[in-house]
Amino acid sequence: MTMGCRGSARAALLSWIFAAAAPGVYGQPGDTPWPGYQHDLEHTGRSQYATNGLVRPQWQFATGDLITHGPALGAAGTIYFGSNDHRIYAINPDGTQQWSYLAGHSISTVPAIAADGTIYVPSQDDYLYALNPDGTLQWRFQFNGPAYSSVSIGPDGTLYFGDGRDSLYALYPDGSMKWVLSLADNCPPLFQFCPIESTPAIGKDGTLYIGSDDFNVYAVNPDGTLQWSVPTGSCVTASAAVGTDGTIYIGSWDFNLYAINPDGTPQWTYRTGNRVFSTVALGGDGGLYVGGGDFDGNGVVYALNPDGSTRWTFPTGYLAISASPAIDANGVLYLGAQDNDFYILNPDGSLRQRFITPDVISGNAALGDNVVYFGGFDGTLHALAGEAAADRRVQSQTR
Question: How much of the chain exceeds pLDDT 90, in percent?
């Protein structure tokens, strides 16, 4: 028996790469440039900021191991991210370290920042950490199995995330349990567990949308009751994105991208050339952008129209893209790839810039005001800045 997709087909993929009080207002999502996974509760991946002209390296910050997921940005410009060296980092906008917190295992999630500055980070040591803005521990909550699902903070301050077995959790901001929903009923017979690796997306009405290793996409009410489920042909480790009309977009390991109506009925399906790990980014012009691959195992960025037709495609190097695109205010796309390169694409799909890094980039980028941050398997957080702000020489900081 295996532990779900991560213990079966995903292991083969990774081998290619690695040879209760009611909540108050204080718990709400932070009003920051990039407060958590894919920027907002709907996971649009779309920023209100843009970069000026061409960008160039501003600084680098080295950690002790791989950085597999992207950063979040605080109100004062602080960059928060985790590393496989078991540490959660807070970095100043100039690339110097503010603090680090040692967890019990690797960090494979994106931090979530609340309105009061609290930073929520699930770890592979089976704990969700709530850290104060100064890096001290506020509380920790133990769950089942290592975490690959980041926290989403609901409008009322509720914390939502999935665990490494089969459960979706809702916690109050003080760390007490609100509810837990097991999604084990549909787990395939040969799977010991069906982890939830997808980060919950939250619609305007508070409905949670989340994928599972049990091959299904779920809609869950804010009270923890199941609204509907939609089966796919394989594991759903990607996170959902929710459009302005309520359409849910999510990819699966069955090579398909699904568009689902808010009532759970299918809208359309788009066939890609490989497993879809990436979350769909939603452009202001209605465009849908997602990383993926072709049948030969190379990376492809897909741009679709709202009806599911192809707008354009952009090929990258070897291995399907697992990172999700970030979109700036001008419609420019930013994403890293498993060919070690970081790509910046114009809205029409033409290459604007490309940066070569020493290793795989699997995590999503975060966009600030005229600056872009991303981490890589080289263990380094990279900062790229637009022309007006990139006048400082490149720095290299170590922990």
Answer: 83
Which domains, ranges and CATH numbers included, belong to the chain? Answer: 5-19+27-398 (2.130.10.10)
**For 142-171, how does the pLDDT look when each residue is reduced to its tens digit (9 = 90+)?**
998 888 999 999 999 999 999 988 899 999
Report whether pLDDT(215) > 70.
yes
Summarize the confidence of residues 282-289 as an average pLDDT: 96
Give the closest residue to 45 by CA, choosing from 383, 372, 349: 372
